[in-house]
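Q: I have 122 residues here and want to know how they pack in 3D. Can you give me a structure?
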Amino acid sequence: MMGFNWMLILGAFMLTGWLATRTAQTSTSIPMQYFAFAMYVVAEALIFVPLLYLADAKAPGTIDSAVLVTALGAGGLMFVAHRTRKDFSFLRAILMWAAFWRWSPSSAGRYSAFSWAPGFRC
């Protein structure tokens, strides 16, 4: 499984998110928007469950730690947003640029001789 092209999985996540967003934004009926959301949840589960199984097989207990960190982070952000009544929509652009700057060198290293350190390949 280590020889698998993980860019395909990242692409699948991006494609399902794009399709669900596009369907929900272009549809005028509320039931169709809920249907798009339901299909998004199903598609993400089909992609994500095998990854969870693989992670649990490789490093038992890792998923529990990840759940705790994610719950604390999301809960903290929701608490701050609720208490301060601030609009956190500006985070979208920051996260998109951070992802771009993070994944660009990884992609370059995957398809060229670029490497972060000797012997390390993404």
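Q: Anything worth noting?
A: The helical segments are 6-26, 30-58, 62-84, 91-111. The chain has a mean pLDDT of 83.
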